[in-house]
Amino acid sequence: MQLLIITSIREYEKHIPVLFKKAGITAFSSTNIKGYNTLETENPMDNWFSSMDENLESSIFFTFTTAELIDAMLEQIKTFNIKIEGQNPMHAIVLGIEKFV
Q1: In terms of C-beta density within 10 A (0-12 exposed, 13-18 middle, 19 or more buried), how is residue 52 classed?
Q2: pTM score, two decimals?
Q3: I need a surface site. Which of 17, 49, 50, 99 has the fewest CB within 10 A?
Q4: Is residue 6 part of a domain?
Q5: Where are the alpha helices (DSSP H) in 1-98?
């Protein structure tokens, strides 16, 4: 079992449940967050929140699932990020779960 965490600007929030469904993930959680970026860089892809706004209305989604389904979701996110022309792609990280109750 692994933990998948996805951050996205609020503008893309409605797309994430569709991507989960396409990847075969049927259960997930989400909440609204504010992303902050205080570091200037020439490449906006180097920042988790690449906008230089004071704060960015964002969402975080997470799910506990298998590596196979996570791989499918990461492919959905990669495809989505290629299609958008904004400077705020979805970001995802995967964490291994060693123990749980």
Answers
A1: middle
A2: 0.81
A3: 99
A4: yes
A5: 15-23, 67-83
